[in-house]
Amino acid sequence: MRLGPLDPSDGPKAQGGYAQGFSVPPGTGLLFISGQIPVDTEGATPYGFEAQCRQAWRNLVTVLRAADLGVEHLVKVTTYLSDRKYADINAEVRRQLLGDHRPALTVIVADIFEGGWLLEIEAIAALTAAV
User: Fold this and answer.
1) Are 126 and 73 spatial neighbours (Cβ–Cβ below 8 Å)?
2) Per the domain annotation, does 131 fall within a domain?
């Protein structure tokens, strides 16, 4: 088994720049990243969805860097949106950040813990670089 995206030829094609699955070989270390919220180091929440989305991703990348990892190490990302209307902006920001990297992905429309937050992002990263 190799580390990397899985897109079975006999399954539906992934829509939106993600993989249907992402294999992680035995013995690969994993980093589980708690839901990252759109709050900066001063405790402020940016105004507007795109700014909040970028802040939540900055927070997620900060956790990755603390483990000497980058976005290419992400194997699974789950994004919780407060409203379906944010899906396109969310996808665009994610594509800008991830480039050609395609982790497994889930987007859920849910009631977010704090009323002013418009999203939350959690992830799993592998401690071996993706191929």
Assistant:
1) yes
2) no
